[in-house]
Amino acid sequence: MSHSDITPTQATNLIHHEPIYLPTSIQPHGVLLGLSSQLEIGWLSNNTQDFLGKQPRELLNQPLSTLLNAEQVKAIEQFCQHQESSVYSFKLSIQTSKGEQYFDAIAHRTQSTVILELEPTDSINQISFLNFHALVQEAIAKMRTTSNLTDFLHLVVSEVQKVTKFDRVMVYQFDQMGAGSVVAEVKRSDLSPYLGLHYPATDIPQQARELYQRCLLRFIPDMNAQPVELLAVENPETHSTPVDLNLSVLRSTHPCCVEYHQNMGVTAILVIALIKEQKLWGLISCHHQAPKHIPYEVRKMCEFLGQIVSLELEHKVNQSELDYKIKLQSLQADFIESISKADNFREALIYPEPRLLDIVNAQGAAVCLDNDITLVGATPTIEEVRALIEWVDTQITDNLFSTDSLPKLYPEAVAFKDTASGLLVLRISKLRRYYILWFRPEVIQTVNWAGQPNEPIQVNPDGSFTLCPRVSFELWQETVRLTSFCWKSCEVESAIALRNAIVGIVLSKADELAKINQDLERSNRDLASFAFAASHDLKEPLRGIYNYSNVLLEDYAQLLDEDGMEYLNTVVSLSVRMETLINSLLRLSLLGQGQLNLQATDLNNLLCQVIDVVRASRTPAQLDIRIPRLMPTIQCEPVLVSEVFSNLIINAFKYNDKQDKWVEIGYLDIHQQPEKRLQQLQPQTSAPYVFYVQDNGIGIPEHHYQTIFRLFKRLHSQEKYGGGTGAGLAISKKIVERHGGLIWVESCVGIGSALYFTL
Ligand code: ADP
């Protein structure tokens, strides 16, 4: 400001040196001077008398040289050439009416103004570099030795506490949303702990956070001290523009901030910003109950320490993230190995138990393989999971779905928010309805605050709350209601990797199976053609044996004695038996060859023909055969299915010693009778009908349920129950299997048997 451009009124004011108040104030522990580019004192704090022994009006509008010596003024002039927002500090002694006074002088520029702040100090001597170095070096050396982030932050608060001697030193960490938590703390033993405390983003407003990024340290030695106003000579220009004191060390405290800390019983604070990747990561916050002065140099040292911590932090955070990723990867590798080795895929996923949860850091999981759901850890109920899968199936893209606030998307989840506010879903196969679901509880369930959550909230007469840690915690809880901790990208990746591995393993297993099937098919074919060739070729010599034996019996009977005749008769009957055996073998080997000729077949007609043939071959022809309801029409090869029914019906009468023998033929309908028993009966098929042939015969002991289907296996001697080759059921089984069906038996010895089959 130069004299030439002031108005007459301003001139009058100048003459009278009548200062006006600027709409700002500072803390009272130092003096603030606002200097024009000519280094004239344009405005100042209304406490110059206390520190400099001069009234504001004696200094306003005066050149800086009224206070400082020529050398000091020159240094400030030089500083003015520096870029804006750089800071220059130096030791200063000023001759006052009270004698020589020492100050720490801190200068910085905002626009065209130089702000010079003077804080009184005991001596003109600076802390020696060596002292400073010794202090910091020790702290740094210790920090480097800790590898884990928690230990590191604990060390940081301890070191800062050592230097500052504050009652409580904490590290606050911000999350992505700006909310924060206390992650490290040292404190006077009689104070209640804040460790683990969470507070909402509003507790430290965005503006304050931005400021911390520009100005790394904030110091308030006494919250309760009366602020000191700034005075200026009236000038419409300076009057209207608020003074930018953002970078001032003496800047006064916002009333909200004062109230906030007063509620905690805190009088002095020192806050150091922790910056990671150019973003405010957290704060080192020091609280003291009584007023506490920290010399400027010590504060600078703390700021420097903060910068070192910031650098090291980046390294530590990255390291701990890396450690976590490595842990996930090793879990993954472990998983994949056991899945690839396991026969039972579900078991391999679930055991050993915590592994499935650890792979994405979840508290609960559900493995869903078709209708079979297995729960691990803390989860909703099976029914809730089943319904959830139905819903998720409509949400899933790329076989993946994740949310950290399920109840907001799926309102039914409010009921199980305690276990599943967060959900991560992998779809392994859509065709087979294979899913893995992971659950995380509502954040609140997982947070323990070391403080006393039961201490009552203070409600003021006007209904407002007094802000205090307890209230902050409650407010924060409101903001995180119905949400879980979010799924980190490395966790989601870990799930995807698991899916890829499972799919890969399943595919390669399928390949393996296909190969085994191919081999089997080939050897089956070989076997069948061998059996065919062998039985075919055997028949001819057998015929020879039979014929020559008969010739012997007829033409040479007189040459043989009784024993000889008997032996020869045995040869004949054995060769007859051998021929039936060979015929069965031939039949069986032929069954394995050629395509099935499927056609729509009315089983009622088919059964009529079968029964006619059976009746014709048996005495008495009066057989009690019951068919309780009409049989369906199905796709099958009628000749083969006739053979099955024929075998079963003949057995039903053959293995029956009752006076009144009967056979019942019918079917169970899966759609009409979805009863449990039926599902147990036909465990692995989805065929619509289960046919049965039931009798009141001798029954089959349970340990023979499988044996009877083996080729040439009989449960009785030749003489009993009319003999047989033991091939009937083996042939029936082959036919059923060629139709893609199953055959099995249920029986009660002495009461009867039921043979079931599907096609
Ligand atoms: P077989 O030609 O001897 O009848 P199958 O293969 O038809 O041969 O039957 C194998 C064995 O199973 C029979 O020898 C018999 O012991 C037993 N079996 C088959 N059907 C019945 C039934 N309905 N009741 C009791 N036992 C049966």
TrEMBL record:
One of its GO terms (molecular function) is phosphorelay sensor kinase activity. SUPFAM superfamilies: ATPase domain of HSP90 chaperone/DNA topoisomerase II/histidine kinase (SSF55874), GAF domain-like (SSF55781), Homodimeric domain of signal transducing histidine kinase (SSF47384), PYP-like sensor domain (PAS domain) (SSF55785). Residues 148-307 form the Phytochrome chromophore attachment site domain. It catalyses: ATP + protein L-histidine = ADP + protein N-phospho-L-histidine. Residues 533-759 form the Histidine kinase domain. InterPro entries: BphY/WalK/GraS-like, GAF, GAF-like_dom_sf, HATPase_C_sf, HATPase_dom, His_kinase_dom, HisK_dim/P_dom, HisK_dim/P_sf. Keywords: Chromophore, Kinase, Photoreceptor protein, Receptor, Sensory transduction, Transferase. GO terms for biological process: detection of visible light; osmosensory signaling via phosphorelay pathway; regulation of DNA-templated transcription. Its EC number is 2.7.13.3. In the N-terminal section; belongs to the phytochrome family. This is histidine kinase. It comes from Brasilonema sennae CENA114. The lineage of its organism: Bacteria, Bacillati, Cyanobacteriota, Cyanophyceae, Nostocales.
